[in-house]
Amino acid sequence: MRMNTVDNLYEPHLTIREFPVAPGKEWLPKPSDWSLIQVQEGIGYWLQAQSSIDLKPGTVLLVYGDGQGRIRASQLNNLLLYSFSVTPARLTGLMTLSELDFLKQAASQSDLAVQVFSASSPVALKMNELHTGNTAGGLSFRLTLLQLFVEIFGKKLEQTAPPQKEGDARERLRSFLTTVSPDVLSEMSFDELARITRCTPRHLSRIFCDLTGMSFCDKRAEIRLGRARELLATSQSKVVEVAFESGYKSLSLFNQMFTRRFGISPGKWRQKNGFNRVGENRRNSGPNLRIVRNNAILPYPSNPN
Questions:
Q1: Higher pLDDT among residues 100 and 42, named by residue
Q2: What is the Cα–Cα distance from 2 to 247, expressed in whole angstroms?
Q3: CA nearest neighbour of 96 among 49, 20, 31, 162
Q4: What's the number of CA atoms in the CB half-sphere (13 Å) around residue 89?
Q5: Which is nearest to 272 in space by CA: 86, 5, 35?
Q6: Sequence-separated contacts (24+) of 158-166 with Cβ below 8 Å
Q7: Does residue 23 sit in the same domain as residue 144?
Q8: At what angle do helices 169-179 and 97-106 cross, to 10 degrees?
Q9: 3-12, 146-155, 203-212: which has the minimum mean pLDDT?
Q10: pTM metric for this prediction
Q11: Can you name the residues that pair with 64 across neighbouring β-strands?
Q12: What is the pLDDT of residues 91-123, one digit of tens each?
């Protein structure tokens, strides 16, 4: 089944970027990502459905950018935003399946998908400290950005792990999914999972679908193809190497599954979103810049054409 999504350039993950918005113009958060946005200069508004929220200097907005809304600059001034995005699908080796599922569910809950923090809040003060501090944007810096994002959800995210009930197959499976990373699950067979959860294949198939919303095969394909897109976008590995590293033993099967899911072959997808384009953007931005400047008023348009 083809995914109804728009593939945007795979930019460096967890990187603070600068977005100037002209008076009266609008800016859209990146689709299908979580964005933490701070107003550095000017006055703006968060517009969503029939409501609006004033955005003053220092205010921080956390938003899931899948059509939730847009930011508009005041007619009287330029608006300068600092923002970094978090793409849960690119954290499969770090987050558990339950944690990823929590973020997926949070994206559909209005009180979690859009959150506003005043300029005096700890979140805003930390965000301001991060984008004004003297840092080269290395691993430690990216982890600090991720920690800030995670802390916003606080105990809600920490409570994804349920109490274990030894005699209940559903709870054994739930507990396993809470602690295992998606990368581990992508390498497992259905029989191995049945042995680990001490469950019959028929019953496992039913409860796995109940807990994840899809079959074991579909979930494993989702993880593998997400890993494949990450490798295609950020590495120079050959397509056949990407196929093997993503868990596919056959290049033809990988091509078939990728094309069926995304409506485009792996090679053509790389041409649009891959390593060379990322490298070109990095060169244009300068190798030593922590904040990547982007003069586009609409950096993530809804219509890429």
A1: 42
A2: 20
A3: 162
A4: 14
A5: 5
A6: 160/96, 160/98, 160/99, 160/101, 160/102, 161/98
A7: yes
A8: 90
A9: 3-12
A10: 0.63
A11: 34
A12: 877 888 778 888 888 888 888 889 999 999 999
Looking at per-residue pLDDT, the higher value among 92 and 164 belongs to 92
Cα–Cα distance for residue pair 244/251, rounded to 1 Å: 8
What's the number of domains the chain is made of? 3
Beta bridge partners of 18: 82, 293
Domain identity same for 104 and 251: no
Q: Tell me, what DSSP letter sits at residue 43? A: -
Same domain, 142 and 289: yes
Q: d(Cα 272, Cα 95) in Å, to the nearest integer?
A: 28
Q: In whole angstroms, what is the distance from residue 173 CA to residue 193 CA?
A: 9
How far apart (Å, rounded) are the C-alpha atoms in residues 278 and 8?
Answer: 11
DSSP state of 63: E
Instruction: Report, as an integer, the average pLDDT of 252-263.
Output: 93
Comparing CA positions, the residue from 84, 7, 29, 3 lying closest to residue 300 is 29
Max CA separation in the chain (angstroms): 66
Which residue type does 4 have? N
pLDDT per position as a tens digit, 57-73: 999 999 997 667 899 99
Distances (CA, A) of 280 to 112, 203, 276: 35, 50, 6
Are residues 95 and 59 in contact, defined by beta-carbon separation less than 8 angstroms?
no
205: helix, strand or coil: helix
Domain that holds residue 116: 17-159+279-293
**CA 104-298-302 angle, 5° bins:** 55
For residue 122, the domain's CATH number is 2.60.120.10
Query: Side-chain half-sphere of 107: how many Cα atoms within 13 Å?
Result: 18
Residue 293, pLDDT score: 34
Quick one: DSSP state of residue 162? Answer: P
